[in-house]
Amino acid sequence: xxxxxxxxxxxxxxxxxxxxxxxxxxxxxxxxxxxxxxxxxxxxxxxxxxxxxxxxxxxxxxxxxxxxxxxxx
Length: 73
Known about the structure:
With 73 residues, the chain is an alpha/beta fold. It contains two helices and three strands, in the order βαβαβ.
């Protein structure tokens, strides 16, 4: 299945753990460039390193995006 995202830039919010991290990995597998989002530089860096280790061919397609995208009343 080709979702048509190869070469496109995808932002996956909350991608440092759980479902978000799995979604980011799935986008890497189909050739997307992926912005890894989390609230801290440490969590984003750790996730990028883990994804690089799991997907060495995709290392150049991982980009950090540090910040909280949630809304607080």
